[in-house]
Amino acid sequence: MKKALLILLHLIPTLSFSQSLGLKGGFNISNIKSNSSTFQTSAIVAPSFGIAFFPGISKVFDIGIEPTYSTFGGKDAISFAGLNGTAVSKIAKVKYHYIEVPVSLNYYPLHETNIVGLHAGMSPMYYLSKKEEFAISSSKINDFVIAPFAGGTFGYKFAKKAFFHLVARYQFPMSNIYKDAPYTTKFNSVNFFVILGCRL
């Protein structure tokens, strides 16, 4: 948590040099990818929101910085014997809450009124907390995860300085979620969100 706050504080000076600033909101469709046959989860949908700012390097190329509160996780059906010996199935679900700071290189071949672009980058993710409905794993959580991502941007400019971006990206963290698990446990997620902003 302290590391996440320090990162956000270090980003404050960058805001003063930004030419565009926006609010970001959307959702993640995420899953926990593992090489263990006994640890297989299905996807959950969870919200994400934050801010986005762009230094304005040029009209075609720019950098995006997006401090974001995000939730990722997975769910699994767990079967066990009930009181009368019959099989009972429960859904085990876990949600992990992170502060992440995606930093992307954006390419906008169309940028006048209609905006079309591609982007790729890296996101450091700092673990905050988790919410469980039946535990999926008893392993300790990794406090820091690094996640490459890539995706596309579609948008529109209106009212001279205002704009919105519709963004879709695939995110594939390189680090394990759990520290001491004997198998790999990595997020596999698709992110969809809207950035509503203006030029400063």
The helix/strand class is: mainly beta
Basic shape: elongated
What's the number of domains?
1
- Integer-rounded radius of gyration: 19 Å
Give the number of helices: 1
Strand content: over 45%
- CATH class reads Mainly Beta
Termini gap:
31 Å
Number of strands: 10
- Poorly predicted runs: none
Can you tell me the CATH topology?
Answer: Porin
CATH second-level architecture: Beta Barrel
For the largest beta sheet, what order do the strands appear in spatially?
Answer: 1-2-4-5-7-8-9-10
Kindly report the average pLDDT value.
Answer: 83
Largest sheet data: 8 strands, antiparallel, barrel
SSE pattern, N- to C-terminal:
HEEEEEEEEEE
Helix content class: under 10%
Question: What this model shows, in words?
Answer:
It is a single chain. The chain is mainly β and 200 residues long. It is 8% helix and 62% strand. The protein has one helix at residues 2-16; strands at residues 20-33, 44-54, 61-65, 68-81, 87-100, 103-110, 114-133, 144-158, 162-171, 186-199. An eight-stranded antiparallel β-barrel has the order 1-2-4-5-7-8-9-10. A hairpin with a 3-residue loop joins strand 6 and strand 7 (114-133). The longest helix is centred in the first third of the chain and has 15 residues, at 2-16.
SSE layout and pairing:
Elements lengths: L1 H15 L3 E14 L10 E11 L6 E5 L2 E14 L5 E14 L2 E8 L3 E20 L10 E15 L3 E10 L14 E14 L1
Antiparallel strand pairs: 1-2, 1-10, 2-4, 3-6, 4-5, 5-7, 6-7, 7-8, 8-9, 9-10
